[in-house]
Protein backbone atom coordinates (compact mmCIF):
# COMPACT_ATOMS: atom_id res chain seq x y z
CA UNK A 1 0.00 0.00 0.00
CA UNK A 2 1.42 3.38 -0.93
CA UNK A 3 1.51 5.85 1.95
CA UNK A 4 2.97 8.85 0.15
CA UNK A 5 -0.35 10.68 0.02
CA UNK A 6 -1.15 10.38 3.77
CA UNK A 7 2.39 11.57 4.60
CA UNK A 8 2.02 14.72 2.52
CA UNK A 9 -1.49 15.43 3.81
CA UNK A 10 -1.10 14.78 7.54
CA UNK A 11 2.58 15.51 8.07
CA UNK A 12 3.20 18.33 5.63
CA UNK A 13 3.78 20.88 8.42
CA UNK A 14 6.47 18.66 9.91
CA UNK A 15 8.32 18.26 6.61
CA UNK A 16 8.26 21.94 5.77
CA UNK A 17 5.27 22.43 3.45
CA UNK A 18 3.14 25.52 3.96
CA UNK A 19 -0.40 25.30 5.22
CA UNK A 20 -3.04 27.58 6.62
CA UNK A 21 -2.99 28.01 10.40
CA UNK A 22 -5.71 26.14 12.29
CA UNK A 23 -8.88 28.08 13.19
CA UNK A 24 -7.89 28.63 16.81
CA UNK A 25 -4.67 30.38 15.71
CA UNK A 26 -6.42 32.45 13.07
CA UNK A 27 -8.87 33.70 15.65
CA UNK A 28 -6.15 34.47 18.17
CA UNK A 29 -7.48 32.00 20.75
CA UNK A 30 -6.46 28.48 21.63
CA UNK A 31 -8.40 25.90 23.66
CA UNK A 32 -6.98 25.48 27.15
CA UNK A 33 -5.84 21.82 27.53
CA UNK A 34 -6.44 22.10 31.29
CA UNK A 35 -10.14 22.85 30.89
CA UNK A 36 -12.52 19.93 31.52
CA UNK A 37 -13.92 18.09 28.50
CA UNK A 38 -16.93 15.83 28.11
CA UNK A 39 -14.63 12.76 28.00
CA UNK A 40 -12.74 13.45 31.24
CA UNK A 41 -14.93 11.27 33.44
CA UNK A 42 -14.35 8.30 31.16
CA UNK A 43 -10.63 8.76 30.52
CA UNK A 44 -9.84 9.36 34.18
CA UNK A 45 -11.26 5.92 34.98
CA UNK A 46 -8.64 4.29 32.72
CA UNK A 47 -5.15 3.22 33.76
CA UNK A 48 -3.75 2.19 30.41
CA UNK A 49 -0.19 0.98 29.69
CA UNK A 50 2.45 3.49 28.72
CA UNK A 51 4.75 2.93 25.76
CA UNK A 52 8.00 4.36 24.46
CA UNK A 53 7.78 4.97 20.70
CA UNK A 54 11.01 5.54 18.77
CA UNK A 55 11.77 6.55 15.20
CA UNK A 56 14.73 7.31 12.94
CA UNK A 57 15.07 8.97 9.57
CA UNK A 58 17.12 7.73 6.64
CA UNK A 59 19.80 10.31 7.43
CA UNK A 60 20.14 9.09 11.03
CA UNK A 61 18.08 11.53 13.09
CA UNK A 62 16.55 9.65 16.05
CA UNK A 63 13.73 10.47 18.44
CA UNK A 64 11.55 8.81 21.05
CA UNK A 65 8.76 9.74 23.44
CA UNK A 66 6.44 8.33 26.07
CA UNK A 67 3.01 7.51 24.66
CA UNK A 68 -0.29 6.57 26.27
CA UNK A 69 -2.50 6.47 23.18
CA UNK A 70 -1.60 3.16 21.50
CA UNK A 71 -3.28 -0.17 20.86
CA UNK A 72 -3.54 -3.21 18.61
CA UNK A 73 -6.26 -2.41 16.08
CA UNK A 74 -6.48 -5.48 13.80
CA UNK A 75 -5.92 -9.23 14.17
CA UNK A 76 -5.92 -10.24 10.49
CA UNK A 77 -3.76 -8.66 9.23
CA UNK A 78 -1.96 -7.69 12.44
CA UNK A 79 -1.89 -3.94 12.90
CA UNK A 80 -0.95 -1.58 15.73
CA UNK A 81 -1.79 2.11 16.05
CA UNK A 82 0.40 4.59 17.92
CA UNK A 83 -0.72 8.20 18.36
CA UNK A 84 1.91 10.94 18.62
CA UNK A 85 1.35 14.50 19.79
CA UNK A 86 1.98 17.00 17.01
CA UNK A 87 3.91 19.12 19.54
CA UNK A 88 6.60 16.45 19.93
CA UNK A 89 10.01 16.25 18.31
CA UNK A 90 9.30 12.52 17.84
CA UNK A 91 6.28 13.33 15.70
CA UNK A 92 8.39 15.43 13.34
CA UNK A 93 10.95 12.64 13.02
CA UNK A 94 8.24 9.98 12.60
CA UNK A 95 6.81 11.94 9.67
CA UNK A 96 10.06 11.26 7.82
CA UNK A 97 10.55 7.67 9.05
CA UNK A 98 9.52 4.41 7.41
CA UNK A 99 9.18 2.39 10.66
CA UNK A 100 8.43 2.95 14.35
CA UNK A 101 9.46 0.84 17.33
CA UNK A 102 6.97 0.48 20.20
CA UNK A 103 8.17 -0.62 23.64
CA UNK A 104 6.23 -1.78 26.69
CA UNK A 105 7.94 -0.87 29.98
CA UNK A 106 7.96 -2.60 33.35
CA UNK A 107 6.60 -0.68 36.31
CA UNK A 108 10.13 -0.38 37.73
CA UNK A 109 11.33 1.56 34.66
CA UNK A 110 10.22 4.99 35.77
CA UNK A 111 13.65 6.43 34.97
CA UNK A 112 13.26 5.33 31.35
CA UNK A 113 9.76 6.80 31.32
CA UNK A 114 11.09 10.08 32.74
CA UNK A 115 13.84 10.20 30.09
CA UNK A 116 11.45 9.73 27.18
CA UNK A 117 8.49 11.54 28.72
CA UNK A 118 10.07 14.35 30.71
CA UNK A 119 12.78 15.51 28.30
CA UNK A 120 12.57 16.73 24.73
CA UNK A 121 14.75 15.52 21.89
CA UNK A 122 15.02 19.15 20.78
CA UNK A 123 17.83 19.57 23.33
CA UNK A 124 18.60 16.08 24.76
CA UNK A 125 20.17 13.02 23.11
CA UNK A 126 18.04 10.44 24.87
CA UNK A 127 19.73 7.52 23.12
CA UNK A 128 23.11 8.38 24.65
CA UNK A 129 21.58 7.37 28.00
CA UNK A 130 20.14 3.95 27.13
CA UNK A 131 21.29 0.76 25.39
CA UNK A 132 19.68 0.28 22.00
CA UNK A 133 20.21 -1.20 18.56
CA UNK A 134 18.82 -0.29 15.13
CA UNK A 135 15.82 -2.37 14.08
CA UNK A 136 14.06 -2.56 10.72
CA UNK A 137 14.08 0.76 8.95
CA UNK A 138 16.63 2.02 11.48
CA UNK A 139 14.01 2.34 14.25
CA UNK A 140 15.84 2.30 17.61
CA UNK A 141 15.01 -0.80 19.68
CA UNK A 142 15.64 -0.39 23.42
CA UNK A 143 17.58 -3.23 25.04
CA UNK A 144 15.77 -3.03 28.37
CA UNK A 145 11.97 -3.27 28.20
CA UNK A 146 9.18 -5.77 28.83
CA UNK A 147 8.38 -6.30 25.14
CA UNK A 148 8.74 -4.46 21.82
CA UNK A 149 7.72 -4.47 18.18
CA UNK A 150 8.86 -2.65 15.06
CA UNK A 151 6.21 -1.76 12.52
CA UNK A 152 6.30 -0.40 9.01
CA UNK A 153 4.25 2.79 8.78
CA UNK A 154 1.32 2.07 6.46
CA UNK A 155 -0.78 5.17 7.07
CA UNK A 156 -0.87 8.39 9.06
CA UNK A 157 -4.25 9.56 10.32
CA UNK A 158 -5.02 13.02 11.71
CA UNK A 159 -6.90 13.05 15.01
CA UNK A 160 -6.98 16.48 16.64
CA UNK A 161 -3.71 17.31 18.41
CA UNK A 162 -2.37 13.76 17.79
CA UNK A 163 -1.61 11.85 14.59
CA UNK A 164 -2.10 8.09 14.44
CA UNK A 165 0.61 5.96 12.83
CA UNK A 166 -0.78 2.66 11.56
CA UNK A 167 1.91 -0.01 11.86
CA UNK A 168 2.30 -3.38 10.18
CA UNK A 169 4.59 -5.39 12.52
CA UNK A 170 7.76 -6.65 10.83
CA UNK A 171 9.93 -7.47 13.87
CA UNK A 172 9.18 -8.17 17.53
CA UNK A 173 10.49 -9.53 20.80
CA UNK A 174 10.11 -13.31 21.28
CA UNK A 175 6.54 -14.58 21.86
CA UNK A 176 5.46 -14.50 25.47
CA UNK A 177 6.79 -12.24 28.25
CA UNK A 178 10.36 -11.21 27.46
CA UNK A 179 10.77 -10.54 31.18
CA UNK A 180 10.57 -13.94 32.97
CA UNK A 181 9.82 -12.23 36.28
CA UNK A 182 6.39 -11.28 34.97
CA UNK A 183 6.80 -7.75 36.32
CA UNK A 184 3.68 -5.55 35.96
CA UNK A 185 3.52 -3.03 33.15
CA UNK A 186 4.15 0.66 33.61
CA UNK A 187 0.79 2.42 33.51
CA UNK A 188 -0.60 5.93 33.40
CA UNK A 189 -1.00 6.05 37.17
CA UNK A 190 2.75 5.45 37.55
CA UNK A 191 3.73 8.56 35.60
CA UNK A 192 1.15 11.20 36.49
CA UNK A 193 3.87 13.14 38.34
CA UNK A 194 5.99 13.57 35.19
CA UNK A 195 6.25 17.01 33.62
CA UNK A 196 6.22 16.48 29.83
CA UNK A 197 9.19 17.67 27.79
CA UNK A 198 6.55 19.09 25.41
CA UNK A 199 2.87 19.71 26.16
CA UNK A 200 0.96 16.53 25.29
Short description:
This protein is α+β, with helices and mostly antiparallel strands and about 200 residues long.
Strand order of the largest sheet: 2-1-5-8-9-4-3
Roughly what is the average pLDDT, rounded to an integer?
A: 81
- Quick one: CATH superfamily? Electron Transport, Fmn-binding Protein, Chain A
Query: For the terminal residues, how far apart are their CA atoms?
Result: 30 Å
| Total helical elements | 5
- Proportion of strand residues: 25-35%
The radius of gyration over CA amounts to 17 Å
How does the overall form come out from the CA principal axes? globular
What's the total number of strands?
9
Helix percent reads 10-25%
Low-confidence stretches: 1-6, 17-30
The major sheet is characterized as: 7 strands, antiparallel
**Please, how many domains?**
1
Structural class: alpha+beta
CATH architecture annotation name? Roll
Query: So what's the CATH class?
Result: Mainly Beta
Amino acid sequence: MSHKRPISRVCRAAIGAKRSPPPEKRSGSRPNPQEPTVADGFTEALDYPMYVVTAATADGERAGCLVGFASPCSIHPPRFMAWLSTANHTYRVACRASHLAVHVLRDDQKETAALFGGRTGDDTDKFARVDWRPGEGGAPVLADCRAWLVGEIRERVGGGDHVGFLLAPVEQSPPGPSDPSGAPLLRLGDVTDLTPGHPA
